[in-house]
Task: structure prediction
Amino acid sequence: MRSIAGAVLHNRNKIFIAEAIGLMHDIGRFPQYAQYKTFRDSISVNHGKLGAEVIEQENVLGGLPLNEQEVIMDAVRFHNAFAVPDSLDPETTFFLKMVRDADKLDIWRVFSEFYEKEPAERASAVGLGLPDAPEYSEAVLACLAEKRLATLADLKTLNDFRIMQLTWVYDLNFPVSCSLASERGMIDRIISTLPHTEEIVRAVSVLKRYMREKAAS
Result:
């Protein structure tokens, strides 16, 4: 979050707000897993909304101006939404887009390490309990080739999960985010764990071309 904010913001206080959002965005994950033993929102609770409730209940932001509290709370509340809500004011939307990009960069880092582990060493909750089978779904791969976001509802295997995470590149908001993803090599590491089929190679080439163009824009 600090890397993105440093590239797109020139106000020190706003960078601090961005850092606070980055620190707190997943605070709902802790009570979520404690109660439900899963990170899957669809069968437990919306962890973004829960995080905002925890921050409010604990009065974590009590020392900040009200407008800054609202920006941070809304960014936490909606960071995991499928799309950015139209109802938010421009400043909140800007911070929300930043944390959504930062979140993807962090998730790619975590999962690039996860996929490289031996299957017996992987925590099943991290992979949402999906089977680590060699198959993948044509519908999920089509999203990658057509520059669309795949959804959790379409996933049948861990390969589908990998491909879905790659489609998140199409939801990045800032060129610097694409640059960071490329420089850190996380996307390539995830790609390297997929089956090397002709149709996957074609879809990946679409993805990489998009990343180059986005980073240069």
